[in-house]
Design brief:
single chain; about 550 residues; alpha/beta; 5-stranded parallel β-sheet; about 55% helix; about 15% strand; globular
Length: about 550
Amino acid sequence: MKLETIHLPYANPLARAYLEDFSRVAHLFEYNPGDGEAFDRRCLYLDETYGNRQQVVEILTRYNEELGCSAAIRANLAALAQPGAAAVITGQQAGVITGPLYTIYKALTAVQLAQRLSSELERPVVPIFWVAAEDHDFQEINHIHILGSDNRVVKLQLEQESPGRVAAGHLPVIPAVEQLLAALEALTNQNEWQQEILQTLRELARQSTNLAQWFARVMQWLFREQGLIIADPLEPGLKELAVGFFRQAVEETAEVDAALEQGRQAVLELGYTPQVEAQPGHTNLFFYQEGELPQRRPLFYDGQGFHTREGDSRWSREELLALAADNPAALSPNVVLRPLVQDVLFPTVAYVAGPGEVSYYALYKEVYRVMGRRMPVIYPRANVTLIEPGIARHLEKYQLCGDKVFNGLEDRLQELLKEADQLGIEGLFAQVKDDFSPKYSRLIEELGGLDPALVKLGQENLERILGQMDFLQGKAMQKHRQTQEGMVKHFQKIKTALFPNNSWQEREYNLIPFLFKYGPDLVTRLGELPLSHGREHNVIFV
């Protein structure tokens, strides 16, 4: 594989400032990710404050062993048990067979950063992946996109009715999983590793009791050589370690709400749009309504007590505090409090974030302070585009590289079409218009002497004639493009491979079809490349 990097600024303006003009947003964060000493200062803070090490390692060890962990993961679990050990955390929703590619790149960034910090800080630093098993947005996790054999973007999804607000960790692995894998098999070519990998995915699904666990097993299998530790917030024991945190969140609901609003205003003052909307009275907690599939329902505070949005369940402050102490598994953090629960449980030196998550964290500094904690280093994930051999040949043929691929693809196509236009269609029509328009305008002026009303009529007629010329020019260009059909198709293949659905490849496509073609160790080999994290976009020729 060959790695090239190119500077491609984030479209998200706040995340772009975070990477390229940190001083502008420094007051929103605790540490500058570009400051090498930030990690050392964070570790000193953890040495003074972190106290859940042995219990957490025991829970993680039991969970990862149940998933079938590798020797590399066991080694990192043992390293995490050592005094002073820290963790680089990242996480994502439990998308079917890992969801979009950027999930893989977040994990790779965590692995590489942990390796780097272990050396630089001279203490064990391990990578941990937080499976967002409590997320209940089924529509976001129930599908993948792949590149079909006919060069179309194909959406494959679990054929299952939306279960409502049910956490991924409570959704059983159903027969629809096999249907999705069968569709994936039918839509991809029979490459060397296709059947082997499909068999592995099916076996991991059979071993799993819910969709989040299937996701976790697949991630652990993919990162078996890199020692990625998997964490599931629904795993028995972790919620018990967060009892004090949940009680504090109940006690200080109003203070957390005010701190979040302070963060929102700070972001607004910079001219950015806050990633979280204001929800007055929201406790930033969910309650699991009992049932065969527990519904995850938001909790609100109205000054008198706590209640679900529907109002069918209510608690006094004392009752909710007792619930947090006696049954913490009944509560769940939302997007605001989830990072803090994570940092209660783990010695987080850094969190690997995508651009959207950077914008979330920009709101949270004062929330951390209210809860008596400090935000970790927010570290940008690697951004990656994979270029396969066929696409690479097209890029070379049409002299596409760097900015021309990512910012000027259509411009380059038009340039090449113009070069191939032996008639000079654009020039021909421009010449006719230049000759015709002045003469027709003089005719209109002459007719105005006969009747002024003819001037307006003549001008309207001129516009119609020029419009018809534009229409004919468009038709001529269309015919010209048809004569260059091969080149146009090549550019369309490039666009579909690199920018599916007019988005980034990493945000749309799934990893598995790449494994079919390039082998089950592809993730290991990607991790051996010196990926740039954040500012530079990694272009990998596979």
